[in-house]
Amino acid sequence: MTRRDGEGRTGTLERTGTLERTTTQRPRLYRVLLLNDDYTPMEFVVEVLRSYFRKAESEAQLIMLAVHHKGQGVAGVYTRDVAETKVAQVMAHARQQGHPLRLVAEPEAGE
């Protein structure tokens, strides 16, 4: 029998004799990707990575360069709710600052 707990996780209910035991599965993880555009300044992307994703300056620079050269870069990996919240927060901040920066959350490969 499959059951959801109060936090949205699913698990399998196993009956062993008279005891019931629930095994929980890890929640599916989502990658937050920054997408390249020709208008958002590199410095703004670094600022976003540092403030919203808690990246060190050097790591933020590397991710920003990946976005610039490869078209996208991974800002972080989170549960679905956290990933979607970060996407919404950063895109709202970018719009407020007049930048067309786009982010997406997609399921981790192999999940």
Automatic annotation (TrEMBL):
Residues 1-22 are annotated as: Disordered. Belongs to the ClpS family. GO terms for biological process: protein catabolic process; proteolysis. The gene is clpS. Pfam families: ClpS. This is ATP-dependent Clp protease adapter protein ClpS. GO terms for molecular function: peptidase activity. Residues 26-103 form the Adaptor protein ClpS core domain. Binds to the N-terminal domain of the chaperone ClpA. Residues 10-22 have a biased composition (Low complexity). PANTHER family: ATP-DEPENDENT CLP PROTEASE ADAPTER PROTEIN CLPS, ATP-DEPENDENT CLP PROTEASE ADAPTER PROTEIN CLPS1, CHLOROPLASTIC. Involved in the modulation of the specificity of the ClpAP-mediated ATP-dependent protein degradation.
